[in-house]
Structures are given as C-alpha cells and as structure tokens.
Specification:
This protein is of the alpha+beta class and 69 residues long. It has 2 helices and 3 strands. Bound molecules: zinc ion.
Length: 69
C-alpha cells in the first residue's frame, strides 16, 4: 500500500497505436506508455479513453498475422 507515497511513480500514458503518439499529447521518449488501457495510470489519458472508447477498441484489436493486407 504505497498509495500515499510523496513521490508517486511516473504515470503510464496511453499510446495511441493509430496516430502513433501518446493520447494526452505529452512528449518525450522517456515517458512511460502502454497500448493496454487497463494499465494506464495517467488521469488525462484515462479520461480520453473514457471519451473515446474507440481508442481502446483499436488497441485491443491488434492486427493478426493472418490479417495482413
Ligand atoms: Zn497521459
């Protein structure tokens, strides 16, 4: 239970696999990000996911090997 830690861990942003950038617009290659919505801890990214469920849907539907064009 480290919820009250004075130095919280860096937030995990949502990586938009469609636009190839972090959803909340933060920049920097040292930012932690994930394409899995359930692992996102950045409040802004979580809010964006809530407003645009399609982002999560896109992330959850990774192109399969047999789905190549
Ligand atoms: Zn974010």
């Amino acid at each position: 239970m480290d919820e009250l830690s004075p130095t919280p861990a860096s937030p995990v942003h949502f990586y938009d696999t469609l636009s190839h950038r972090i959803a909340c617009g933060v920049r920097g290659f040292d930012q932690r990000s994930t394409k899995y919505p359930r692992l996102v801890t950045c409040h802004t990214c979580v809010a964006l996911l809530g407003e645009r469920p399609s982002l999560a849907v896109a992330a959850g539907s990774e192109p399969a090997a047999d789905a190549a064009p």
